From TrEMBL:
Residues annotated as transmembrane: 87-110, 116-137, 179-201, 221-242, 334-357, 369-393, 449-465
GO molecular function: signaling receptor activity
Protein name: Gustatory receptor
Organism in which the protein naturally occurs: Daphnia sinensis
GO CC terms: plasma membrane
Membrane topology label: Multi-pass membrane protein
Cited Pfam families: 7tm_7
Compartmental location: Cell membrane
Domain of life of the organism encoding this protein: Eukaryota
Main location: membrane
Gene Ontology annotations of biological process type: detection of stimulus; sensory perception of taste
Amino acid sequence: MNGEDASYKEMLAPLKLAPFYIFFNHRQMLSELRQQGIREAKKTTANITLDETLRPLWKLTYYCGILLDWCRPISENDPRFWKATRYLSIVMSSFLLLAVFTFELAQLFIGIERSLNVHLIILNIVWCIPVMVGVVIQEQFLRHRREFLGFFKGWRRVEMEITKLNPDCIMCKSRRMHVVMYAIHGGLAIAGLISIGIDIFNRPDEPYLISHYKSVRDLVPLLLICFVHLAAICLTLILLTLSDLVTSFTYYHAGLAVDCLERDARIVFARCFNTEDRLFITSLDDNNQPENVCKDLPKSCSSAEIRVSLQLIWARFDNVDQLINQANSLFGKFLVCSQGVSLFMITALLYSVFYYLGDALRLRSTGLILPYVMNFLSLGFRFISSMLISAQLHRSVGKFRMSLNYLLSQHWNQMSKQDRDLLRSFLSRLYTDSLVACPLGLYNITPSILLSIIGLVVSYVIVLLQSK
């Protein structure tokens, strides 16, 4: 019996521990599900701010010693040695850009005096003008450093206010567009530096190079000359990328903020004016149903709640408008300079492509026309992508106006007179003072402006070809 009892107890032992195993497994399963839910919530509710979008550019310009803090303030705990090194690097980069620009400008004037046709100085223009724009961009970021810091601080505050207005509204959910733009600009910069380095070694006597003068070639190694030119071009490309992406991403995130306000307005009207519930209540009244049935239905918001919600949306929109007006003034100086120079260079490069196209087809060689084609495609992409991304603000404001017009017409009879007057005043505000990217108040960046620019470029190219 004792042996049978012992074996029986051994058989029951796992069954006694089974509740504990089930309990611990249940807790582990709940913990895993909870962690999975937290991860999914972080994935779905993460809002990509403008600071996070511009952080790669901020780190690049800050740690490479090109600019001081312009998007985020410098940490006060940085050692003095690193601060002094950074200041020295900024001074050296500025001196390098000024020196190279002075040389290229002098060579451009010499080329204009000696050349018989425009196409002979196109490469001098391509080498001179971007360096000048780089000097202007660096000077603007250094001179207006405090204004830039104040602007991005104000933008962080506006993003927090819009998020508090509706915590479920996410302005920017995906990094795809930002990553693609960074990758394309980085790829274009690397390809440009490689092609320029090869061009310097293959044709060191070109007039736009320091090695054009034989005395310099005999005195200074060609590798050092190549390094000087590539360093200046690298700084210029970084500053041009900074000018394009900072302005376009700022206007793009402003458009996303307007989209968020548009969704908030739709949510307010959907919550306060549920058309299906009101039709159902009307049908119950027609059928002489008891009053307590109608009381159980969801009630709409009061007129005061609607008015407060619309006033909050209007206030957030005014804050975005104020920052965009500040951005138009702050970014406008180097943005107008950068886009104007890009337009001029695109016209000159397209003219050179058509000028050498006949010789390239006759000789069946792309060596003569390839540099012009590559520069034209690179500049064209940068210009068009910057304009289209900045035009997101114009599209978002247009969508916002259409939504408010639709909501006003859809719920006109359900709104009180005060709510109707408030919404009509808001719409009048949107029509009379449209929120749009407008550098220095000179021109509005909209998708339709690209058609005007293309027509302008084609007209100038035709005039230049006729003067050939």
